[in-house]
Amino acid sequence: MALLLLSLLGLLLAWEGGQALVPPSELKQMSAAGSKYIDTEVENAINGVKQMKTLMDKTSKDHQAILHTLEETKRRKEEAVQLAREKEQQLAEKQEVCNETMLALWEECKPCLKHTCMRFYSRTCHSGSGLVGRQLEEFLNHSSPFSIWVNGERIDSLLERDQRQERQFEDMEERFGLLEDGVDDIFQDSTQVYSRMYPFFRAPFGGFREAFRPPVHHIYFPPRSERFSRELHPFFQRPHHGFHRLFQPLFEMTQRMLEEAQGSWERPFGGFAPESRNFSDERMVCREIRRNSAGCLRMRDECEKCRDILSVDCWQTDPAQSQLREQLEDALRLAERFTRRYDDLLRTFQAEMLNTTSLLDQLNRQFGWVSRLANLTQGTDGFLQVTTVLSKTPNLEDPSAPPDTQVTVQLFDSEPLSLTVPGDISWEDPRFMEIVAEQALQHYKQNAIE
What we know:
This protein is mostly helical. Helix content is 67%, strand content 5%. The chain contains 14 helices and four strands. It has helices at 2-14, 24-94, 99-124, 129-141, 146-149, 152-197, 208-211, 226-231, 233-237, 244-266, 279-291, 304-310, 319-367, 430-449, and strands spanning 18-20, 384-392, 405-411, 417-421. The protein has a four-stranded antiparallel sheet with strand order 1-2-3-4. The longest helix has 71 residues, at 24-94.
């Protein structure tokens, strides 16, 4: 009764702008024809969402595999770092054997090292020279030549890099969890739509959800920082709008960090002579010196007395030191190799996620609108209702051309929508309602993804 009253009201209000072509008794048949087209499109969209879920399940499986590889790589990296620290400690316990020789060289090394580092910082980094100078003075006064002799800054660099990798990993896991939740929400809502359209497919006869949702086993990770959760809070509100945006900033940040760190891996013993410098290395060293004055130790090769410390050979008085130092170098090289491997794994996975989320966004724009129907109750008259069909005023410039047809419809739970069909297509033509239904659905999709 309400639909009939709405149709009659639409006819009365529209008489002034055109001529009514279809009596109310025919509107129901047109609505049924349009709803049939919409039903087909809803089914297609549900199948598209199933493609999204299948892609996400495969990605989750790949994700589990890379997690195990990352875990193994990290374990071997930590073992190598621990071995290096043990060898460093053993060497520290024996350093008194050559202590007198190295201390003498150290007293001549420190002024040169400070002058070289501050000259580099003042010329390259442009800010904070006074504070950095005081920090460096204090650092050198409390340091020993042993730090240079065993390349101690390499262990510090490894430990710092490990912390940065851990932060990257946590960010990646947080974002991946949001991605899984977003796709799963769309899938869950789509299954509800399917169940309403075809209730006889519900369990125990083999539900849609059970048929297309293989089990995925997850590794549990503790909750992340509140800061990161606040940054991503808007995404929780609309979890399936812009999957690609989850990983693009993280990937770009990682690329910058890896490019900046590349120089330190390739030349771990320093080498900041003017002819060998590049801007990427210099930016990295500026930040490292500001954070930790130990970064100045990288410039030891610029000072003769500092280089002499590296060449001190304690083998004649204690042959075991030579072996310990060689073992330390081996452990450091191994730890650096696994650190680079860990970086490569993170970068590869993030690149894969960029490709995957780009594809998911395409599928979502095409099919994700169907998830909005989860809470919609389908009436007995179908998803699309035609309320008025009017012949528009003839075109004064071409009176012989058939006037266009204006159709007012309501699709799903949206507001009534006025559409125009070319006048050369009669409302009795089967194409008429296909055009109307297609236009209405396109309008609904645009609103769904905005």
